[in-house]
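# step 3/5: fold
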Amino acid sequence: MSRNISISDDIYERLRREKGDRSFSEVIAERLDEGETLSDVTG
C-alpha cells in the first residue's frame, strides 16, 4: 500500500539527491531507523 504525503520543494530536492537508486520510502525508513523523527527528515 502506498500513501501520499506533502513535502516542500526544498525537502523534495534534498531527498531526491540523497536517494540515488533507492525509493523515497527506503530513504525515509533508513533515517527513521537511525533514530531521526519524521520532522527531522521532512523539515
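# step 4/5: annotate
The two ends are 24 Å apart (CA to CA).
# step 5/5: archive (pending)
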